[in-house]
Write a structure and sequence with these properties.
The complex is a heterodimer of chains A (662) and B (1115). Chain A is mostly helical and 662 residues long. Chain A has 29 helices and 10 strands. Classes of the chains: A mainly alpha (662), B mainly beta (1115). Chain A: This is Susd and RagB outer membrane lipoprotein.
């Protein structure tokens, strides 16, 4: 007991010492795995530079994105028909000739909402954080590079809002110089009529600043490292920004023609995207973020999973690129039956009457023909329908049509696919045409020829070529010189101004640039089944390894196309320009042609996009319904416009365009 | 820190060496019940001292007492307390009388402090070992809590027995996913790591449970559930969600070594299955041009064949009606009659699960100390094929009395568990593209698919590119299930130990001290080995994948209290303590993974090692570190007047590294008062005990570690660095400085307890509480353009007003027969008082892309809104238009149209929860049953809608044919469906649906569609959720039923069994739902335990019903 007091003292001392470790708390507050502004300041690192590069890597902003592209390919192609989903045009695929829309379809949410969700989150977040840091820093301490980054981020912001407002009209808009909600500022919804003048002013301001900026060699080296989009080239940034100005000017041409003319006038002499290598965008995520290959999140995954959307469109091959099927006839059972016996690509590619891109962007069917599928409904009742002529070409001259002993029809690259005649056809030669036609229609409509995969070699119709399509190094085409040339062509045709040449010149140049671009994309594909990233193992080697026979003379064909252009009316010219735009971007960029189609309906009096008969035309994207809960005040503002049938302001129309069944 | 712990232990040991001797006699004896069966665990106290012991497994005890004047107090739960004057005897055998009054019950309260239950000024629920093991040995100890304590909700998930369990006390809610609502779990005084768990879609995202899964039910002496704020105020910043104290069993003094052993074996079967149809098989509508008029798919060779993937229409069960006279060509080239292949495909897909639990415990003790050692082996084969779970538990509980002043106690629980192939969302995902739930089509021959699945080379037969399209989507789903469960391996192992060392020190008559040090340490290793499907497949699609991630969680805990207890007068006693607590939590995550075959992936097939990478290639490494520290000072004082009035005030001040340095100190006070008015007032005789209690306290709820830090994630591209800001803005002020505060809960509680009549025939425990959680961390979905997805702040305020009622009755107590009937009820309404002051509505989470869980100011928390709902026609120009009010059908006629108008469809929190447990005891038999229930909540189940869309539910038979209400239609020249019989020679189909309603223009809908199109478009939820598939989560479940027979000592002796006790039991768990609303699912089918994943389910995994037997013996 004599030690009780001592022990009590010791215990109390111990207890107090436990709770006296103050300093440790402050040390432990910081996440050891997190980088902070404090750490950056201590080591002299510019967080604005880090935010700038972060902005360039945001999903679907400057690169493809699996989820969003998947839905734009699946649902978007039901509106624009960049490729043909063959089960939407023939009953054998399970569809009926009845009106359908993408609003009640699987994946509606992903299709409608991706851009809205992106623009309000990841596309704006690094910009706002950079702006906040910039605003907080005293003017005298701001570096030239930080000012440059902020300028370029404003340009990116303008691009992001252009995409967003073209989809929804009213979107939450952050004013230049504001750090948005980070500053406590309440966001306001603005529509196209307000956003376009703002971003056009901002693009102009950015270009002016860039024209004056001078970097030291050290600054240039640092900038080049951070600028993963354009490699630290201020000139290329000016081209990008000025080309965006041109895009925006054309987008408002129906409603603000004066502004269009003014911008085009301002652009005279300004650097624009003009070479086939002038492509703004970032390569597939499988290349820029190889650590994410495991999740296969890039645009190529969307291409692979949308294998049924890869059939070539007749419009592109025949109507735009002048690849004409060769029609032959044969009398069977007293009926004159037409069929496609081939096409003119062989000679036409050589002599410049067929677009070289036929053989760059597309692959022929297994028999070597470049023949696509029409988007018009074909129920088979017309024995000489376009689709019937394609299918008939495979069997009409086969011995099975004349030799009663042959009861199995073989097709495919190595005759690896077969169709066995039914009992009636086996016994009666006169029944074979109907049987084989129906069987082949069924094979094609149900993708039995491709086994629902991309890159197969037994395809019954022409398809997208997997060489450029699965060139992982291909940059997502945010904007390309071809678009710039086509915009200048349209501006000239429609009288908004004609800087740097005539409409003909720009139209011709666009075609030549596009030919070179797609050729390079095709032949530069160094990927295989064994590389990382790898091409899908389900692809056939013949499709992977087949290079274009040669680089055809783009100028020759471009001149051929220009001569046709010369003979067109203005409306036809604008239609032709649109066709080139849609062909060039095809399934790599849904939004730009979609926007162009909507704004051109008024001028052309019709819809320049190729349409399925059965799908409703869609005038705008609808908002995420979750806004009702997250921001009910804004929902009150935007919900009256949450209607896919309501044309946007920039179309100059109040009436929805309707297709055949609407 | 290490030095301080060393100092702590050193002092402990230093004090332990002190020896003080005194003159003592040793009393021995045996305690039995009134039927002479030994009573283990009886507390035997030397009256007027803290000295005591407990009887061993055979009822034997030994205790040293002073030579003169010793009085022993025998106290045991369920028995009348007896005081015995020793009077110089050395042997005292005693039979205790059964009592339903446990007015002298001692319960464990906060910080492990034992108190008389009658003195408590707040609600505490105690669940003892008998109740925990009433019906076998649960895999997860929380399973025994269904319906036991009012206001305490537990629920399993679709992950099954080895996954986590939801637990919630008094409607604990939060405004942010990161702010957990789980109570603090404390094992033998040591807070343990606990977290929400969930299944994910990734192959490695399995729900393997959390620390509580390891706690061995056989070793638990009791759960004490501190429900209210005052009860848990001594846990300060972590007490707001309530606290569950788990006390493990300890040894007892007695003669020699007591041995107890038990063996439990249980069989599990898939249960509560959806009501499946077995009339129609895989395929599509007969009007599909790929089919003949009877709906049989015609292949390229003109034969009736099984349809394969989507192109053939082989995703759902909308194919032709079974007809044994029709032969269909299968994927293996064999023609078979078109008949259902099974009566219940669940029996083919899932196995009979089996669980064996063996427990052996040794215990003994003497005057100087007690020890209990227990070993338990649990071996479980779940119903999911290829899964297994095992757990070995070693528990050591020892106390040693160094002298009359110092008592040391050590508890150590070591758990080694292995969980093989726990399910993830893709195990049977409701929406999986591959399965589309056609996996439950009756035409699938599961055995054939499984037998064919593995090639002689060990690859997947169906994954070969040449065969990848030969199966239907449903069949592929079956193959996917078996390949992942039988060929791939998800190996999860956890080494978990919880240890504590306690020293109770008597410093003087007035002062004492207790020191507690302990650690909760677990190492979770999560390996995934995905086998190569086929050598032709490369990259991630090859299935070849290796992942090996280890998480180490460590909680170190130290607690020191200086106690005092003194009488201020003959009527007033003052007691209390002051002390300090230190706690350190750490996390280390290390591991790597590599995904794919060839290229940058693994090289040698099915060699799972990071050595199996191409030269120069590195796996993707994964690292994470975290550490937080908490320092607390605390104090408590209790004033007792005449053993009738108890007033207690307690407070704790916490300083935490989780909070910003300038505001990391917070104070939590609490007071309570108790008046046992049955001692102070003249009440009717039948009122044996009556008490009023009141309490108030302010407790906290911490934010997660690093929650308020503004951290940029770093990466690089090319030569540039990338700084990515947080997607969710942490709590920061206008200057960007962190300003996170802990969440606070203030609660006022009133309670009333009474026991009526002799033998506690009626007992009532009622609590009313009014709590307000304020400064809640809110994740406000940022208005667009904010620069973040969510903005987090301390702002929300939620009020819960509720009541809890526990009724314990003994309706019949006559001779050898006794009927116990206990009921619990709880009801609470949780209202949102405030969000951020401006915001009126907060979206908590979204499910199925179309259902928002919402907090609206002034309304109940967790309202569920459909964001896209069906609507009716309204003519803007003619209010008398007869079409007004009719449902609008979409343009295709396949479903009712919907619009983006929010519609209230339910709520998360049930209105009423509770349970009923009853037991009938006759001589040596006991029949026990436990029921629990809930009413008022809502369940969101993907099963309910996806299986409808796939046509596998019996409900989806409607419209399939004339008998089921299908209307006639035919295809015109353009393949349009036209109602009526075909006027030509073509077929007429009878699976037509003509939805009643109008089109968007108010014209009567005339579009006939196939049943397949109707079900797919109306129920395949993506961006919408069918309103008629949203159900109340109301249920009444018979959870447990058991029948025990205990052989008495005499009988055992006659049988020449040297046992003191033998109990045989048969039991069943998850027996049946006496009532439920959702027709094809159960409320416990959620994806996880957390904030959002606990609110909805997307899988079609079945639950299970268990039956078993157990034998328990004491030597």
């Amino acid at each position: 007991m004599k030690y009780i007091k001592f022990k009590s003292f010791l215990l109390i001392l111990l207890m107090l010492s436990f709770v006296a470790c103050k300093d440790k708390l402050a040390d432990l507050y910081q996440n050891p795995d997190g980088y902070s502004k404090e750490l950056a300041d201590k080591s002299g690192v510019s967080v604005i530079a880090g935010f700038f590069t972060s902005e360039l890597t945001q999903g679907f902003l400057l690169s493809g994105d699996y989820g969003s592209c998947y839905h734009q390919i699946r649902s978007g192609d039901r509106i624009m028909a960049n490729a043909v989903q063959i089960y939407q045009v023939v009953p054998e695929g399970g569809s009926a000739f009845s009106l359908a829309d993408v609003e009640h379809d699987w994946g509606t949410g992903g299709f409608n909402e991706s851009v809205f969700n992106y623009v309000n989150t990841s596309w704006m977040t690094p910009i706002l954080w950079a702006q906040r840091e910039y605003n907080k820093s005293p003017k005298e301490t701001r570096t030239t590079l930080d000012t440059l980054y902020i300028t370029l981020l404003h340009a990116i912001k303008g691009y992001a809002y252009q995409r967003a407002t073209d989809m929804y009209d009213k979107v939450p808009y952050i004013e230049t110089g504001s750090a948005g909600g980070l500053d406590g500022a309440k966001i306001t919804y603005l529509g196209q009529s307000e956003i376009y003048p703002k971003i056009l002013r901002e693009f102009k301001s950015c270009d002016s600043l860039l024209a004056k900026i001078n970097l030291t060699s050290t600054q240039q080296a640092l900038f080049a490292k951070q600028d993963i989009l354009l490699g630290g080239s201020i000139l290329n940034w000016r081209k990008f920004i000025n080309s965006l100005r041109l895009r925006c000017a054309m987008n408002v041409s129906e409603v603000m023609p004066g502004l269009t003319s003014q911008v085009i006038s301002d652009l005279s002499g300004a650097p624009l995207l003009s070479a086939n290598t002038d492509i703004v965008g970032i390569a597939d995520i499988a290349v820029i973020a190889p650590n994410r290959i495991g999740d296969e999140l890039g645009i190529t995954r969307a291409f692979r999973e949308r294998a049924d959307d890869c059939r070539a469109n007749k419009k592109f091959l025949q109507d735009v690129m002048n690849c004409q099927p060769t029609i032959s006839t044969r009398v069977v059972n007293g009926q004159t039956l037409s069929y496609f016996s081939g096409d003119n690509s062989g000679m036409g590619l050589q002599n410049g009457t067929v677009d070289p891109r036929v053989s760059y962007i597309f692959s022929p069917d297994f028999s070597g023909r470049y023949i696509g599928v029409d988007t018009k409904w074909d129920n088979g009742s017309d024995i000489n329908s376009y689709f019937n002529k394609i299918m008939r070409g495979y069997y009409i001259n086969d011995p099975i049509m004349t030799d009663i002993s042959k009861t199995t029809f073989y097709y495919g690259k190595n005759k690896s696919k077969s169709i066995v005649l039914d009992a009636v056809s086996k016994a009666d030669l006169t029944k074979r045409d109907a049987f084989l036609l129906a069987a082949l229609r069924n094979e094609c409509a149900n993708y039995n020829d491709t086994d629902y995969s991309v890159g197969k070699e037994n395809n019954l119709v022409s398809e997208y070529n997997i060489r450029p399509q699965f060139n992982y190094a291909a940059k997502y085409p945010v904007i390309h010189a071809v678009e710039t040339e086509l915009s200048l062509a349209e501006a000239a045709v429609r009288g908004f101004g004609s800087p740097n040449g005539s409409a003909r010149d720009h139209y011709k140049n666009a075609i030549a640039l596009s030919c070179d671009y797609w050729y390079n994309l095709n032949i530069s594909n160094q990927y295989s089944k064994q590389t990382s990233p790898a091409l899908s193992s389900t692809m056939d080697d013949s499709r992977i390894n087949t290079l274009p026979a040669m680089q055809y003379n783009a100028s020759t064909y471009a001149e051929f196309a220009a001569q046709k252009f010369d003979t067109m009316t203005n409306q036809q010219k604008v239609q032709a320009i649109f066709n080139q735009l849609q062909l060039h971007y095809n399934m790599f960029n849904f939004e730009v042609p979609y926007t162009a189609a909507r704004r051109l309906i008024k001028y052309l009096g019709t819809n320049p996009a190729s349409q399925y008969d059965r799908f409703k035309w869609k005038e705008r994207m609808t908002y995420p319904s979750s806004i009702q809960a997250s921001d009910p005040a804004s929902w009150t503002i935007i919900s009256p416009f949450n209607n896919p049938d309501l044309p946007l302001w920039f179309t100059g129309r109040a009436t929805k365009w309707k297709n055949a069944l609407e | 820190m290490k030095s301080k712990f060393t100092l702590f232990i050193t002092v402990l040991l230093f004090l332990s060496w002190q020896q003080i001797y005194a003159q003592q006699n040793v009393i021995k004896g045996k305690v039995t019940d009134d039927s002479q069966s030994p009573l283990p665990g009886v507390n035997i106290l030397l009256k007027g001292t803290m000295k005591g012991t407990t009887s061993d497994a055979n009822g034997n005890y030994a205790i040293s007492v002073p030579v003169k004047g010793a009085v022993l107090v025998f106290r045991s739960l369920g028995f009348t307390t007896k005081e015995v004057n020793v009077n110089g005897r050395s042997v005292i055998d005693l039979a205790l009388e059964a009592s339903t009054q446990n007015l002298d019950e001692v319960v464990v309260t906060a910080l492990g402090i034992k108190k008389d239950a009658k003195a408590l000024g707040y609600a505490v629920s105690k669940i003892d070992a008998d109740r925990i093991l009433a019906s076998g040995t649960p895999v997860n100890a929380l399973q025994s809590l269904y319906g036991t304590a009012p206001g305490v909700q537990v629920a399993a998930t679709a992950a099954g027995q080895t996954g986590g369990m939801k637990i919630n006390i008094r409607n604990a809610v939060s405004f942010d996913k990161s702010s957990s609502t789980r109570p603090l779990l404390v094992v033998d005084g040591i807070p343990i790591h606990d977290q929400n768990t969930q299944m994910g879609a990734d192959a490695t995202a399995r729900d393997n449970g959390t620390g509580i899964n390891d706690i061995n039910p056989d070793d638990i002496a009791s759960f004490e559930i501190l429900r209210g704020a005052k009860a848990s105020v001594l846990y300060g910043s972590e007490g707001a969600n309530g606290v569950i104290l788990i006390t493990t069993k300890s040894g007892a003094k007695g003669k020699g070594l007591g041995v107890s052993a038990s063996f439990t074996t249980t069989w599990d079967r898939a249960a509560f299955q959806p009501d499946l149809q077995n009339e129609y098989g895989s395929g599509s509508s007969p009007s599909n041009p790929k089919n003949d008029a009877q709906g049989f798919f015609i292949n390229g060779n003109g034969k009736r064949a099984l349809p394969s993937v989507a192109g053939d229409g082989g995703t759902g069960a909308f194919g032709p009606k079974f007809d044994p006279n029709v032969k269909v060509l299968w994927w293996d080239g064999v023609e078979r009659p078109w008949v259902a292949q099974t009566k219940n495909i669940y029996d083919d897909l899932y196995t009979t699960g089996h669980q064996n639990t063996t427990n052996v415990a040794l215990s003994g003790g003497n005057e100087q100390g007690q020890i209990r050692f227990s070993y338990t082996n649990l071996s479980l084969t779940p119903i999911t094929p290829g899964a297994s779970y095992s757990k070995n538990t070693f528990s050591l509980n020892a106390s040693h009395k160094l002298n009359n002043y110092i008592n040391l106690k050590y508890t150590g629980n070591f758990y080694f568990s292995n969980n093989l192939n726990a399910p993830n969302l893709n195990t049977m995902n409701g929406q999986a593209q591959q399965a589309s739930l056609g996996a439950y089509s009756a035409d699938l021959n599961v055995g054939l698919l499984r037998d064919k699945m593995v090639t002689p080379d060990g690859y997947n037969y169906f994954a070969n590119p040449s065969r990848r399209n030969i199966l239907s989507g449903g069949a592929l789903g079956v193959v996917g299930l078996f390949w992942d469960q039988l060929q791939n391996k998800s190996e999860f192992s956890r080494l978990h130990n919880i240890q504590s060392l306690t020293a109770d020190i008597t410093l003087s008559k007035t002062f004492g001290a207790s020191l507690v040090g302990g650690i909760d340490y677990s190492t979770d290793r999560n390996e995934y080995k995905g086998r190569l499907l086929d050598p032709n497949l490369l990259g991630p699609l090859s299935g070849f994948r290796y992942s090996d991630i280890t998480n180490i969680y460590k909680t170190a805990y130290g607690q020191a209290l200086l106690n005092f207890n003194t009488k201020l007068s003959s009527d007033i006693n003052l007691s209390g303590f002051v002390g300090g607590i230190i706690r350190q939590n750490t996390l280390e995550t290390k591991g790597a993974n590599v995904n794919g075959y060839g290229g940058g992936g693994l090289v040698i097939p099915n060699y799972f090692s990071f050595n199996n990478l191409p030269l120069g290639v590195q796996p993707l490494y994964q690292f994470a570190n975290g550490e937080d520290m908490l320092y607390s000072t605390l104090g408590s004082v209790q004033l007792v007047w005449k053993d009738q009035v108890f007033v207690e005030a307690q407070a704790r001040n916490d300083r935490s590294s989780i909070l910003p340095p300038n505001q990391n100190s917070y104070f939590y006070p609490g007071v309570s008062a108790t008046w046992i008015f049955s001692q102070g007032l003249k009440l009717p005789d039948y009122v044996k005990f009556a008490k009023l209690r009141a309490s108030w306290a302010d407790v906290g709820r911490p934010g997660p570690r690093y929650f308020s830090n503004v951290n940029y994630s770093t990466s690089q591209s090319g030569g540039g660095y990338i700084l990515t800001p947080p997607t969710d803005l942490p709590p920061i002020d206008a200057n960007g400085s962190p300003n996170l505060k802990p969440e606070h809960k203030r609660e006022f509680e009133l309670g009333f307890e009474t026991y009526l009549f002799e033998n506690r025939r009626i007992g009532v425990d009622f609590s009313y509480y009014n709590s307000n959680i304020y400064d809640q961390i809110m994740a406000v979905a940022a208005p667009p353009g904010t620069g973040a997805n969510n903005i987090r702040m301390n702002a929300g305020s939620v009020q819960t007003i509720g009541w809890e009622l526990g009724i314990k009755t003994v309706p019949i107590l006559k001779g050898d027969f006794r009927w116990d009937l206990n009921l619990t009820f709880a009801s609470g309404k949780t209202y949102v008082n405030q969000l951020d002051g401006k915001l009126q509505s907060l979206a908590l989470w979204n499910a199925f892309g179309s259902i928002n869980a919402v907090a609206n100011v002034g309304q109940e928390y967790g309202q569920l809104y459909l964001t896209k709902s069906n609507y009716t026609y309204k003519d803007p120009n003619n209010e008398n238009n007869p079409s007004n009010g009719q449902k609008v059908v979409n343009a295709a006629g396949t479903a009712y149209d919907y619009t983006s108008t929010a519609k209230l469809v339910g709520k998360l929190i049930p209105d009423v929860t509770g349970g009923l447990s009853t037991s009938f005891t006759y001589k040596r038999f006991r029949l026990f049953a436990n029921i629990n229930y809930q009413f008022g909540g809502t369940i969101l189940s993907g099963t309910e809608t996806y299986m409808m869309a796939a046509g596998v539910l019996k409900e989806s038979l409607k419209y399939r044919d004339e008998a089921h209400g299908g209307i006639a239609y035919y295809l015109d020249a353009n393949s349009n469906k036209v109602a009526g019989n075909n006027p030509g020679s073509g077929p007429t189909f009878h699976d037509g649906v003509l939805l009643s309603g109008v089109d968007v223009n108010g014209n009567k809908n005339t579009k006939v569609v196939s049943a397949q199109d109707y079900y797919y478009n109306s129920y395949f939820s993506n961006g919408f959720f069918p309103e008629d598939r949203i159900f109340k989560s109301d249920y009444i479940a018979l959870r447990n039923i058991s029948l025990d027979y205990t052989l008495n000592t005499k009988l055992l002796q006659r049988m020449h069994l040297n046992l003191s006790r033998l109990t045989l039991s048969v039991f069943a768990n998850n027996v049946l739902y006496l009532y439920k609303v959702a027709p094809n699912t159960i409320p416990e089918s959620t994806n996880g335990t957390g904030w959002d994943t606990g609110g909805f389910g997307t899988t079609a995994l079945p639950a299970q019903r268990s039956m078993g037997v157990s034998i328990k013996v004491n030597f």
